[in-house]
């Protein structure tokens, strides 16, 4: 037990599909044998996780009979009770089965769109039964290879209709559940609709119940698009839409890597953790990552421990940053405000505009202002490297 030991209050969660990933890739067969949901719950409990999330079919196979479903859910609930793990989030698999080869809610086939709705209603019931308060929508196949195949306006309408229908379903059933949309730019489709956090935020404003719908941003997905993930998270937070978060790691310009949190872009991970802790984000810290294909299940456990441990180390580094006298002095210098422009704080008024027009500005002095960002960044790097 050290200060980097995960505790329930840290809200570290993993999907069944993360530690349960079999190590399959487009070029290779599985390298790990399949563990049952109950075995995965035990593995996560041993690693120190707080919660476990799932797609409907991670838990209940797509062809299960009602009796099989009931037995699986009963055994899973028992494993949760035995280990103390909870289920904060659930989601639907709308991408594995060939029926979804052209998308689910945005399939060109109205029967597939209807089936996707029915599957999601059932999966929402399952998630709520197990305690989920957040329901994620990752549109894994909501996209195209050729734009000859689909009009993006039709796709937007179908996706909107589906979310409106499902919001009503949640309200009609009195469920305490919010939706979190997860954007991704591509993979497995060539192009996915609503590819970034910003795109999703814009889309949500077009829904019938925008208050019920927020974001589940993922590190890897914004990195795949070459974007600054922390900035995207900040925008979602600013809009009151950071309902959930998928933590992992990913180099720019690569295929979807789903690496252990903080394992490659350490500085970005640091600023992300610092942001989440500074603003007081209270939702799940969900790790949507996979162990290397070379890992056995002992190493998978190390992978899970590593995600949480790195988060907690970075959290401590963020506190250190906030308490570092030299860093804080530099920040005070950079953000110094003598109050001269306080008249702009209330926004526009005729008086404020008149006062602003009458204010002289010395551009040369303003342009010559000292901004010691090199020093600040070097101090940050030294702090991260452990010599500060
Ligand atoms: C991916 C996605 C998924 C989703 C998951 C939950 O790139 O495969 O990140 O892992 O997060 O389907 O909806
Ligand atoms: Mn992903
Ligand atoms: Mn994800």
Instruction: Provide a count of the helices.
Output: 15
Instruction: Tell me the Rg in angstroms.
Output: 23 Å
Question: Which outline best applies?
Answer: globular
Number of domain units? 2
CATH topology of the largest domain: TIM Barrel
Strand order of the largest sheet: 8-6-4-3-2-1-10-9
User: Which ions and ligands are bound to the chains?
Assistant: D-gluconic acid, manganese (II) ion
Write out the CATH superfamily name of the largest domain.
Divalent-metal-dependent TIM barrel enzymes
Concise account of the structure shown:
The protein is α/β, with parallel strands linked by helices.
Report on this model:
The two termini are 24 Å apart. It is built from 15 helices and ten strands. Helix 5 (110-129) packs parallel to helix 6, helix 9 (229-238) packs parallel to helix 10 (266-279) and helix 10 crosses helix 11. The chain has helices spanning 16-19, 37-47, 56-59, 66-83, 110-129, 152-172, 197-204, 219-224, 229-238, 266-279, 297-323, 325-334, 350-357, 363-367, 373-384, and strands at 12-15, 51-55, 89-91, 134-138, 143-144, 178-182, 191-192, 213-215, 246-247, 285-287. Strands 8-6-4-3-2-1-10-9 form an eight-stranded parallel sheet. The protein is of the alpha/beta class. It has two domains: 8-323, TIM Barrel, CATH 3.20.20; 325-384.
């Amino acid at each position: 037990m050290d200060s980097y030991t995960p505790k329930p209050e840290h809200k570290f969660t993993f999907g069944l599909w993360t530690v349960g990933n079999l190590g399959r890739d487009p070029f290779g067969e599985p390298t790990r044998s399949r563990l049952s949901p109950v075995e995965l719950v035990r593995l996560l409990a041993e690693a120190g996780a707080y919660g476990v999330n799932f797609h409907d079919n991670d838990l209940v196979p797509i062809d299960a009979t009602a009796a099989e479903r009931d037995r699986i859910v009963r055994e899973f609930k028992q494993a949760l009770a035995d280990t103390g793990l909870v289920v904060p989030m659930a989601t639907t698999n709308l991408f594995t089965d060939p029926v979804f080869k052209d998308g689910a809610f945005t399939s060109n086939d109205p029967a597939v769109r209807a089936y996707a709705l029915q599957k999601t209603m059932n999966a929402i019931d399952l998630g709520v039964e197990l305690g989920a308060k957040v329901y994620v929508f990752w549109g894994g196949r909501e996209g195209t290879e050729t734009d000859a195949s689909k009009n993006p306006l039709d796709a937007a309408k179908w996706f909107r209709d589906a979310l409106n229908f499902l919001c009503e379903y949640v309200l009609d059933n009195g469920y305490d559940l919010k939706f979190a949309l997860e954007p991704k730019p591509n993979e497995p489709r060539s192009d996915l609709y609503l590819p970034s956090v910003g795109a999703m935020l814009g889309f949500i404003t077009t829904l019938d119940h925008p208050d019920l719908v927020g974001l589940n941003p993922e590190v890897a997905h914004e990195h795949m698009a070459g974007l600054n993930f922390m900035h995207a998270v900040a925008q979602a937070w600013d809009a009151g839409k950071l309902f959930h978060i998928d933590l992992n790691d990913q180099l720019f310009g690569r295929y979807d890597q789903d690496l252990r949190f903080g394992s490659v872009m350490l500085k970005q991970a640091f600023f992300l953790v610092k942001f989440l802790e500074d603003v007081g984000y209270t939702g799940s810290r969900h790790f949507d990552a996979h162990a290397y294909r070379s890992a056995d299940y002992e190493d998978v456990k190390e992978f899970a421990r590593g995600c949480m441990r790195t988060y907690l180390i970075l959290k401590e580094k963020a506190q250190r940053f906030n308490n570092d006298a030299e860093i804080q002095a530099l920040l005070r210098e950079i953000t110094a405000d003598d109050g001269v422009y306080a008249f702009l704080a209330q926004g526009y008024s005729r008086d404020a505009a008149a006062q602003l027009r009458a204010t002289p500005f010395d551009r040369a002095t303003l342009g010559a202002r000292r901004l010691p960002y090199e020093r600040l960044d070097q101090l940050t790097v030294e702090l991260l490297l452990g010599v500060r």
